[in-house]
Design goal:
heterodimer, A: about 140 residues, alpha+beta, five-stranded antiparallel β-sheet, 4 helices, about 35% helix, B: about 110 residues, alpha/beta, five-stranded mixed β-sheet
Chain lengths: ~140, ~110
Amino acid sequence: MPSNVALDIRIPSDVQQIEDIVAQVVRRCRACHFAGRQLSLNVPVALTEALSNAILRGNGDLAGRSIRVRADVDERRVVMEVEDEGIGFDLEACTEDPTTPENLEREDGRGLFLMRSLMDRVERFKGEGNVVRLTLIRR
Amino acid sequence: MSLQVTKQGEVVVIEVDGQLIVGNRQELKQRVLDEAEGGARKILVDFAKAGYIDSSGLGVLVSLAKRMRELGGDLRLANLNDDLQTLFELTKLDSLFQIADTRERALESF
């Protein structure tokens, strides 16, 4: 994680926490003059997907677990990291194409696709826990 | 997120105010299913006041549209802003739903 961390908090593993965290990161991006579309679409949707994935899949929706969220924002880019207590997953293998005719009417399977569509870079690696890192260049 | 439900003729209009995401998608799902249980077959979800939607929100819309079709009805959408339009295009869900620019046009389309 680069220096100049703007946000570094640990939250309960609960989907009700998502909107507040997303709003905090969007506020920091707004202060760094990110474009309107990035503030209203790219950052909130991709971060919501990462948090939701961490809470429901990584932490198995288990009460008592937690998520660590870090966001480093400056006028060039935002780097967001979401760390859960799970064993991790293969980003390539788990990303499906939800736009194919056989997948189009599925209720699930769009989260990783949206993260990768809306961010410039999506990485997964092992930190203390399982980390997903999202990077978006300011435009 | 809050939902405002009104009836315009045979169409139940559900206006979404705020984000439709993983933490609240069940509210929309239950509301539409309750309306369907009560006999409604034409549902319009109006996004004029909506914020962003995540994959869970999109998934609920897909699931509800399928359910309404199984019941011989239809679920249509109106007033997607540019961001939401982009999301539907990215996921190709714009090909699955009938989407109108305005509530009035959506109501006329049923």
